[in-house]
Amino acid sequence: MKPDLKSDFSADIAQKISVDPVLNFVSRNYEGLWHAARLLGGYESARLVDRCVELLAQDQCVSQQARIMLDQILAVLSLEHVHDENLPYMGFFAVIDPCDPAVEEICLLTDGLRHVLSCTIGETGLRCVA
Fold first, then answer.
1. Whole-number Å distance between alpha carbons of 29 and 127
2. What is the per-residue pLDDT for 92?
3. Residue 124 in 3-state DSSP?
4. Looking at residue 84, what DSSP letter applies?
5. What is the pTM of this model?
């Protein structure tokens, strides 16, 4: 059963936030980020994506809390904790076939998220503090 994925970003919100690369990237790639997080970290990681999207939609900027969540999402996508036996990530990662087309999408999402975070937040600081 596939969950009903509907972005918290409405068309009106998407038009207002299109100038912010992070919000634009998350809005355009919400479903892919959600599925990638679920594949690599289970439903707990997918819920992290949901909470982050809700916070970004509510604040209309990348707050400090949203930045922490985005960094956590990036850590899941980039397999930063896959070697930690105390975390469940290794179990999720191990069942993915390397030839699965989802692997390429995960790599593209990871690179894209890393890029927008480093270009817009890393150099200029946070857009707002919520």
1. 21
2. 82
3. coil
4. -
5. 0.77
What is the percentage of the chain residues whose pLDDT exceeds 90? Answer: 57
For the chain, the average pLDDT equals 82
| Distance (Å, whole) CA 50 – CA 54 | 6
Residue that the structure tokens 């599925």 belong to: 35
The Cα–Cα gap between 40 and 95 comes to: 9
Q: How many CA atoms lie within 13 A of 28 on its CB side?
A: 14
Q: In the predicted model, what is the mean pLDDT of residues 55-83? A: 92
CB 40 within 8 A of CB 92: yes
- The Cα–Cα gap between 43 and 37 comes to 8
What is residue 72's three-state secondary structure?
A: helix
What is the Cα–Cα distance from 44 to 17, expressed in whole angstroms? 27
